[in-house]
From TrEMBL, chain A:
Keywords: Cytoplasm, Mitochondrion
Domain Misato Segment II tubulin-like positions: 4-68
Source organism of this protein record: Gallus gallus
Protein name: Protein misato homolog 1
Family, as annotated: Belongs to the misato family.
From TrEMBL, chain B:
Name of the protein in question: Chaperonin containing TCP1 subunit 6A
Keywords: ATP-binding, Chaperone, Cytoplasm, Nucleotide-binding
Pfam families xref list: Cpn60_TCP1
Compartments reported by the entry: Cytoplasm
SUPFAM superfamilies named in the record: GroEL apical domain-like, GroEL equatorial domain-like, GroEL-intermediate domain like
Molecular function GO terms recorded: ATP binding; ATP hydrolysis activity; ATP-dependent protein folding chaperone; unfolded protein binding
Keyword Nucleotide-binding: yes
Family: Belongs to the TCP-1 chaperonin family.
Designated gene of the protein: SUMF2
GO cellular component, one term: cytosol
Length: 543, 532
């Protein structure tokens, strides 16, 4: 039985990813391997995520479809009459209420009329509350009235502003009360997962929040995901500088206060120069839409967090963090194959054999990929592939060593061992795939079948909506991060403090900035491989 | 209304007033128009059913940060003054807004006739000195007994909530401040915990001489009600978790593994048994209760062990409640179970759990000598709760101010009438055109009794004249009786305002109004030179 986890969503993009993520967990297939109690709390009337979401004014729309529960009528002693609104919405709401309910599952499978279509990627998906499909507890959404989500003025732009927000006593008290509400009822609280926007002032909010968590709940795991939306074209250089500064300060502070920190984004780069967004072979998503990009991240996130949500395992968030953050490497990189390219009918060894040379995943941590696949430690999760039993019959010579392994775990373990010799790899294999029902966007290539597999012969494909996909992810402590952190350092140095005077006026002292820069550099040195010949990089660092 | 277009004059209308160009009319529209470029302002005003004895304050704690959102420079400046006023004294924010607005309006009358703002500002300065003198003269120094404090609190609270509720809150507020007051030390209002409960109606708000925690015991066998209980406050982890040193498990067989896990568990069990020992020692065979309130977690196994011994255990108490707990019940908060003695235990006469829907509350009441108390606010909805909470905060501040000042000022507009009267008398002693500034100041102050009269539905001018006549005749401090619209002696009616609120008001309003006038002059000069 997995311990309980409290989730915090700080910022709008975190809200987008979160909304999809809660949607993915809505209707699991039979025989659940993942524990619901880990992330959801069973209240008096149905399950709600154990969630605190911080948003700015105007960032949350009316929570019509799922949304906040109506206020409990505990104090009312008179008669109660219920009036249900007919039409759309109710079916989805029912699904959200009973995630394990069989009838709800059947409902999902057949696709109720009028419900089957994903919201079109237009005006209806501007805010994450538009595609939130589960109900939230009334204590979940906390709207910060001091700043506006949209508009020209009153934006939460700088790290310092975010920090200051939580120095306000009443704001802090409110947050502590909400944390307390969720934490107090947990029997075996294992930790907190913080989804935090890195690109705006919420990185400062995150810095403070994680500090509070570390302070108040010592010895609990804090797993922080630094999220950034795909950067659009650089129109406003000032804004771009702010983004880089926020991200850098965020990484330094968040990693310092968390057990494990992972930057997660589809954007190609965190630095000043934008890079094209990451592309997946079987996904056609519109990078400019948060609705799309956050959906991809949510699928990855749902899989990455499997190790501490399993019903069977005793692994906790703290175990995962300790395994990966060995010798100060608190920043990790995330890799994912969304969907994992597997041909229908093929077994797991077959599927992995097809990728002997190159692991088919992409790096989700805004950094240029390196061809050399090396890492210090990793936690790999593969889900949704191994339903088919190995095809090899006893007596026959197995076509590859992979086919000789008995269990799916062993197959994956063996495969990782050959792909990453010398690295410590923990692996989990799950039967249940990632369920991508609406409001998950239809972003998958038409080649994919309903279950997200590739057809055996490319000519025949059904244009059916993809209902579930196999996913492969890895959380890696890898030398790639050195490049990421070093590049960020160089960018900051180039930027200097003078060009963003207003940023520093918002609360960050110049000394703090230089200290952060130093820490970033120290952090990056943790990821140096002993035998790496990158003296040239060192030289450029020292100047 | 003046050409200054100050949205705040609209307070008189008791409605949401759009600011910016709301002024209109008058000769001086050119002036301050640099200030009017900002966007409109919404100034929400409370509308209680009962006419207040003094001015209504805007709902502060929730909406004062809105000063950051006001774009209109003047309005934003004034809102900031109101925020500052709230920070320093906790009351008088609306008066502040009103007086500044009125000062500008009165000044504008003279300035549009050609008087230089500098001279008006000089007049204001002289008038302020005189007003402060009057304030010193009329202040009433008396012993701050419960009666006086109740009057002070009542004056403040009746402007914020309706009378019936105000009277309930008044007693609760005064008693709570008196409970946490320690002779010779400044009053720490943090020791009055304000607890919200969405339940029943607002008149069920009460003062709890003890503490209310918004969580309960998590074990079904623990008692819901304990009388005459020892209280152990501690900050000790009673849950099995992985130890900090990342020691891997090295084991060969399932039994060995079990053994290791047991050894780890033993650690926690030892702690629990120490607490149980203490309970046995102090309670013995008597039927006294024993409560453990822990800041860290307690896992189900430990809860079970404690429940078997008849101990009620609460986990994850809030940090800010830990200090209050020891103040309310006595005893000391323990950071380890090694040196537990009966001395570190607190005591409460009654501890009980109250369940409300999904939420549980634990009341720790009947403490012997509570140094920390709880105001339990009840109300049917969030809005009412916030309203009461704000009112209670202001009430607490008012009582605290009165105790710290050691003196009070008659309210209901009496001070303003007296000051205006004194200023008019003082005017001939002022040389030159600065007299006009003094006159403007005197007129501006009268906005307070005028608004009071208007808010209670009387003709402002008629009431004002009556009050002024009464004041001149009797020489006593006369204010507006809001129930009759007639003059009354404020002190006799028990309407008292805080001394430091009034003092702060006179200071800040004068400074800000003068500055706005002078800056306006400079801006105008700058603009005309640009044109030329």
């Amino acid at each position: 039985m997995a311990g309980e986890v409290v989730t915090l969503q700080l910022g709008h993009y975190a809200g987008c990813v979160g909304a999809h993520w809660w949607g993915l967990q809505r209707c699991p297939p039979e025989g659940t391997e993942l524990s619901h109690a880990a992330l959801l709390r069973a209240g008096r009337d149905g399950c709600t995520p154990r969630l605190i979401a911080l948003e700015l004014k105007g960032g949350v729309g009316p929570l019509g479809r799922g949304g906040a529960r109506p206020e409990p009528l505990a104090a009312w002693r008179g008669d109660v009459a219920n009036y249900a609104e007919p039409g759309t919405g109710t079916a989805l709401r029912d699904r959200g209420q009973r995630p394990g309910d069989a009838s709800a599952d059947a409902d999902c499978g057949s696709g109720a009329p009028g419900e089957g279509a994903a919201p079109s990627a237009g005006s209806s998906t501007q805010l994450w509350s538009d595609y939130l499909s589960v109900q939230l507890h009334p204590r979940s959404i906390y709207v910060l009235q001091q700043y506006n989500h949209d508009g020209d003025s009153g934006r939460l732009e700088a790290f310092g502003q975010g920090e200051k927000l939580l120095q306000d006593a009443s704001c802090m008290e409110e947050l502590e009360d909400r944390l307390h509400f969720y934490a107090e009822e947990c029997d075996y609280l294992q930790g907190f997962q913080v989804l935090c926007d890195l690109h705006d002032g919420f990185s400062g909010v995150g810095a403070k929040v994680t500090e509070v968590l570390q302070d108040e709940y010592s010895r609990k795991g804090i797993l922080t995901w630094g999220l950034t939306p795909v950067t659009h074209t650089v129109a406003d250089s000032q804004k771009n500088f702010y983004r880089v500064l926020n991200a850098a300060l965020g990484i330094v502070h968040l990693s310092a206060h968390s057990s494990l920190f992972c930057p997660l984004s589809l954007s190609g780069s965190l630095g000043i120069k934008p890079q094209p967004p990451i592309e997946f072979p079987y996904v056609n998503y519109d990078a400019s839409l948060n609705y799309h990009s956050s959906a991809v991240l949510a699928a990855a996130l749902d899989t990455l967090t499997v190790p501490y949500r399993l019903c069977s395992s005793r692994g906790s968030m703290m175990h995962l963090a300790e395994m990966l953050s060995f010798s100060g490497r608190k920043v990790v990189a995330a890799w994912a194959a969304v969907p994992f390219p597997a041909v229908r009918g093929h077994s797991l060894p077959d599927a992995l054999c097809a990728h002997q040379q190159d692991v088919p995943w992409k790096l989700l941590s805004s950094c240029k990929e390196q061809k050399v696949s090396r890492c210090f430690a990793q936690s790999v999760v593969l889900r949704g592939v191994c339903k088919e039993s190995p095809t090899s019959c006893p007596g026959q010579q197995p076509p590859s060593p992979l086919h000789a392994c008995e269990t799916a775990e062993q197959v994956l373990q063996y495969y990782l061992h050959t792909a990453f010799p010398g690295a410590f790899s923990a692996s989990h294999v799950l039967e249940q795939p990632c369920v991508t029902l609406p409001p998950y966007p239809r972003i998958f290539s038409p080649l994919l079948s309903r279950q997200g597999f590739l057809p055996d012969d490319l000519s025949s494909y059904s244009a059916a909506a993809v209902e579930s996909i196999p996913v492969l992810t890895s959380l890696q402590s890898s030398p790639v991060l050195r490049t990421l952190l070093c590049d960020l350092c160089k960018d900051l140095q180039k930027l200097g403090t003078r060009r963003c005077a207003s940023f520093f006026a918002a609360g960050v002292e110049e000394d703090d900035f230089h200290e952060a820069l130093q820490e970033l550099r120290t952090l990056s040195q943790c990821y140096q491989m002993g035998f790496e010949a990158d003296n040239s990089e060192d030289e450029s660092d020292s100047d | 209304m003046g050409a200054l277009g100050l949205p705040l004059c609209g307070v008189q209308r008791r409605a949401c007033v759009r600011g910016g160009g709301g002024g209109g009319g008058g000769g001086g529209e050119f002036r301050l128009n640099w200030l009017l470029r900002g966007e409109s302002v919404l100034y929400p005003l409370p509308s209680g059913e009962e006419p207040p004895n003094t001015l209504p304050d805007p709902p502060q704690h929730s909406s004062l940060p809105f000063s950051e959102q006001i774009q209109h420079p003047t309005a934003s400046l004034i809102a900031k003054v109101a925020t500052a006023q709230d920070d320093i004294t906790g009351d008088g924010t609306t008066s502040n807004v009103l007086i500044i607005g009125e000062l500008l309006k009165q000044a504008d009358l003279y300035i549009s006739e050609g008087l230089h703002p500098r001279i008006v500002a000089e007049g204001f300065e002289i008038a302020k000195e005189k007003a402060l003198e009057v304030l010193e003269q009329v202040k009433v120094t008396k012993e701050m007994d419960r009666e006086t404090l109740i009057d002070v609190a009542k004056t403040s609270l009746r402007t914020k909530v309706h009378t019936e509720l105000a009277d309930i809150l008044t007693e609760a507020v005064v008693d709570s401040v008196l409970a946490v007051r320690k002779p010779g030390e400044p009053i720490d209002l943090h020791m009055v915990e304000i607890m919200e409960m969405k339940h029943k109606s607002e008149t069920d708000t009460t003062l709890i001489r003890g503490l209310v925690l918004d969580h309960g015991a998590r074990h079904p066998d623990m008692k819901k009600r304990v009388e005459d209980a020892y209280i152990l406050t501690c900050n000790v982890s009673l849950e099995y978790e992985k130890t900090e040193v990342s020691a891997g498990f090295f084991y060969k067989s399932a039994e060995e593994r079990e053994k290791l896990v047991k050894a780890e568990r033993k650690f926690i069990e030892d702690r629990v048994s120490k607490i149980i020992d203490l309970k046995r020692r102090v309670c013995g065979d008597s039927d006294k209760g024993f409560i453990v309130i822990n800041q860290k977690g307690i896992d189900p196994f430990s809860l079970d062990a404690l429940a078997k011994e008849g101990i009620v255990a609460l986990r994850r108490a809030k940090r800010r409640n830990m200090e209050r707990l020891t103040l309310a019940c006595g005893g000391t908060a323990m950071n380890s179970v090694e040196d537990l003695t009966p001395d570190c235990l607190g005591h409460a006469g009654l501890v009980y759990e109250y369940t409300l829907g999904e939420e549980k509350y634990t009341f720790i009441e009947k403490c012997d000598n509570p140094r920390s108390v709880t105001l339990l606010i009840r109300g049917p909805n969030k809005h009412t709760l916030t309203q009461i909470k704000d009112a209670v905060r202001d009430g607490l501040r008012a009582v605290k101010n009165a105790i710290e000042d050691g003196c009070v000022i008659p309210g209901a507009g009496a001070l303003e009438v007296a000051v205006a009267n004194a200023l008019v008398k003082h005017k001939p002693n002022v040389k030159g055109r600065a007299q006009l500034g003094v006159q403007a100041f005197a007129d501006a102050l009268l906005i307070i009794p005028k608004v009071l009269a208007q808010n209670s539905g009387y003709d402002p001018q008629e009431t004002l004249v009556k009050v002024q006549a009464e004041h001149a005749e009797s020489g006593q401090l006369t204010g507006v009786d809001l129930n009759t619209g007639e003059p009354m002696v404020a002190a006799a009616a028990g309407i008292w305002d805080n001394y430091n609120v009034k003092k702060q008001l006179l200071h800040s309003c004068t400074v800000i109004a003068s500055n706005i006038l002078l800056v306006d002059e400079i801006m105008r000069a700058g603009m005309s030179s640009l044109k030329g």
